[in-house]
Amino acid sequence: MQEVRGNMSHVDDGTLHAYLDAELTPVERARLEAHVAECAACRNRLDEERALLERASGLLGLAQPPERAAPPLHELRRPSVVWRLRVPVAWAATVLLALGLGYYAGDRPDVSPAPEPVAMRSADSSAAATRLADRLAYRATPPRAQTPPETRPLAAAERKEAERQPVMVVDGAPVSAQLDTVPVGAGAANGVVAIRSRDTGAANAAPASAPQTTRAALPQRTREEVGVSSAIVQREDDRRALVATQWPIIRRGPARQLLGAEPMGVPGLAVRNIRRSPTGEVVLVEQAIDSVTVIQLFQERAENDQFGGVQVRGGTVGTERLARFIGGVRVEIAGPLSADSLNRLLEQVKPIGP
Amino acid sequence: MPEDLAEIYRSTYRSLVRFLYRKVWDAERAEDLAQEAFARALVHKPENARGWLFVVAANMARDDARKAARERRHLTLLKSEPDAVHSEPEDRIDADAKRERVHTALDLLTPRDREALLLWDAGMSYDEIATQTGLARGAIGTTLARARRRLVEAYDAGSEGQHVARG
């Protein structure tokens, strides 16, 4: 700040504005006022600057958005507000929600409903579990360091729990699918669970289009057998964390090597990043739909997938619609969009050339 | 949810919307982005939430502006009148024209001057503006003085051409 003591020097514009903005310290303020009291020139300038300031404020006031009430803060977690343009609830979410609410009805009162599953895979083996854990660890990675210790991705106990093979009975029929739930980022507040639907060969007996009846028919025993230790639904928070990935970014060349093929993407969408999983088996292509929406295409060599033969599209188990084989690559899509939207995007996926 | 964030939401939401509005020039989009920023703050729980929110919001607005450059102009023309006091069509047209001139005038400022001015108008202190913009605290007054002067000059220069039409 320029010296403003006495008549020795005049006051610069910046100081005058700081004075008018009440941003001078008391000492500076007193000096300026003392100077202005004696200096007619600076007094005039102060008046001019005050007029200028008011004029500028008035002009900015012409460019005001309409006053509208702010939605309650807690509602911002809900996709209907934040993802205003999306169709928030996909059938798959309904399955998860139904299962989750059913399961949690007893002892987890603070589970909040959330729209979409984290990941849906057709695979079942420890190798696949490792890859899934890989993926989930990534997804659950909190964007900031200040997370409580219990939010560590996949604690050992949780992993063990993840290996349980609970049996789901649908409409009293024999097992048509097995659910393998892997809690990640455990703790009721940050629970992320991926459900991997396992096709046991009788997939057609489990019409994915009737998730509500699935819930209704779930016997209590079964619900308890679904060894979920955390919220079964993924919350908006966690979904946002998807974007803040921690997987290392790689270039297209290494991605091509990992996949044995060109990495896949939706034509016309900007590729934000190409990443690889810590184990190096999965390549992740992130593409931006808009400034706040990123879809993720997890891809790996088809031979890595233990259930390579599963029909991934066209009406078997519904969860499989979110994955697809293209050439020798299995591509799985995830993102804050409805299953329908993801499906449509998935249909467009093809190798993205250099 | 953190108490302080709830408080910041109450005290800052409108300011953030206003700040964003003058960047994206679309009221609904500004609200969406402001809500998005707060939703992210709920997740990230930043220490200096207020400053963080404005940084995130500014970044989102910049991304958004790039994407929406084409449609923005159209949307701005279609938007309902912000200045609800004036309901007469002529007044509305007049207000639209004025807002458009303010928009144009703001665009003529340097990014740094504009940012400082918008942050000040959003209720930030000199200290906060300094943190936000990387300017020295002592330079904020000078920056704002220059920004205000240029805004007024640019606005007046822009309105000269329309003086006759406005009467």
Produce a short descriptive summary.
Chain A is an alpha+beta fold and 354 residues long.
In the residues of chain B, how many domains can be counted? 2
CATH C-level class of the largest domain in chain B: Mainly Alpha
Radius of gyration of chain A: 28 Å
Second CATH tier, the architecture of the largest domain in chain B: Orthogonal Bundle
Query: What is the global morphology of chain A?
Result: elongated
Can you tell me about this structure?
The complex is a heterodimer of chains A (354) and B (167). The longest helix of chain A has 23 residues. Helix content of chain A is 34%, strand content 16%. In chain A, a hairpin with an 8-residue loop joins strand 2 and strand 3. Chain A is an alpha+beta fold. Chain B has 167 residues and is mostly helical. In chain B, helix 1 runs antiparallel to helix 2 and helix 6 runs antiparallel to helix 7. At the A-B interface, helix 1, helix 3 and helix 10 of A face helix 1, helix 2, helix 3, helix 5 and helix 6 of B.
Keywords, separated by commas or semicolons:
heterodimer, A: 354 residues, alpha+beta, Phosphorylase Kinase, domain 1, 3 domains, five-stranded antiparallel β-sheet, four-stranded mixed β-sheet, 11 strands, 34% helix, 16% strand, elongated, disordered N terminus, B: 167 residues, mainly alpha, Arc Repressor Mutant, subunit A, 2 domains, 0% strand, globular
